[in-house]
Amino acid sequence: MAFDATFYATVAFLILVAALIWIKIPTKLNGALDGRSQRIRTELDEARKLREEAQLLLADYQRKRKEAEAEAAQVLESAKAEAERITAAAHADIEEMIARRTKTAEAKIAQAESQAVAEVRARAADVAIAAATDILKAKVTGPLADTLLDQGIEAAKARLN
């Protein structure tokens, strides 16, 4: 019987398949594939859990960020209101201080004016007394002149001051 190469290849293949079945290679291959699929399934489950935890953390951080932004806005608004209040109080204090200083300056001016008027009157009285003294000395003579002159000077001083 003449066998060709195809026959030998087929017989060799069948012997190989029988040997593989006898060594239980398909079972080992299935076991390895099952183990690998189980590891992949476990990794997928773990990845899913990690993703859910990450989403929860992200949601928590987003909520905290929104709360922090709201709190920052509230603090900013409060600071603006406080600044406006302080500015208004400072303006009121400055206006009050200016009014007090103006009043004080006006009082000092009035006092200086009164003092200047008094000084002018006193100087005018001194000049008038000196002029009257010179006129009376020139016109009145003798002991009567000295007595009249002294009495007139005293009377003029009393009236002018």
From TrEMBL:
Species annotation: Segnochrobactrum spirostomi
Cellular component GO terms held in the UniProt record: plasma membrane; proton-transporting ATP synthase complex
Principal location class: membrane
Coiled coil spans: 37-85
InterPro entries: ATP_synth_b/b'su_bac/chlpt, ATP_synthase_B_chain
Protein name, per record: ATP synthase subunit b
Spans through the membrane: 6-23
Cell division keyword on record: no
Domain of life: Bacteria
Name of the gene encoding the protein in the UniProt record: atpF
UniProt entry keywords in alphabetical sequence: ATP synthesis, Cell membrane, CF(0), Coiled coil, Hydrogen ion transport, Ion transport, Membrane, Transmembrane, Transmembrane helix, Transport
Membrane topology reported for the UniProt record: Single-pass membrane protein
Taxonomic placement: Bacteria, Pseudomonadati, Pseudomonadota, Alphaproteobacteria, Hyphomicrobiales
Function: Component of the F(0) channel, it forms part of the peripheral stalk, linking F(1) to F(0). The b'-subunit is a diverged and duplicated form of b found in plants and photosynthetic bacteria. F(1)F(0) ATP synthase produces ATP from ADP in the presence of a proton or sodium gradient. F-type ATPases consist of two structural domains, F(1) containing the extramembraneous catalytic core and F(0) containing the membrane proton channel, linked together by a central stalk and a peripheral stalk. During catalysis, ATP synthesis in the catalytic domain of F(1) is coupled via a rotary mechanism of the central stalk subunits to proton translocation.
Subcellular location(s) per record: Cell inner membrane; Cell membrane
Family the entry assigns: Belongs to the ATPase B chain family.
Subunit comment: F-type ATPases have 2 components, F(1) - the catalytic core - and F(0) - the membrane proton channel. F(1) has five subunits: alpha(3), beta(3), gamma(1), delta(1), epsilon(1). F(0) has three main subunits: a(1), b(2) and c(10-14). The alpha and beta chains form an alternating ring which encloses part of the gamma chain. F(1) is attached to F(0) by a central stalk formed by the gamma and epsilon chains, while a peripheral stalk is formed by the delta and b chains.
A GO term, aspect molecular function: proton-transporting ATP synthase activity, rotational mechanism
PANTHER family in the record: ATP SYNTHASE SUBUNIT B, ATP SYNTHASE SUBUNIT B', CHLOROPLASTIC
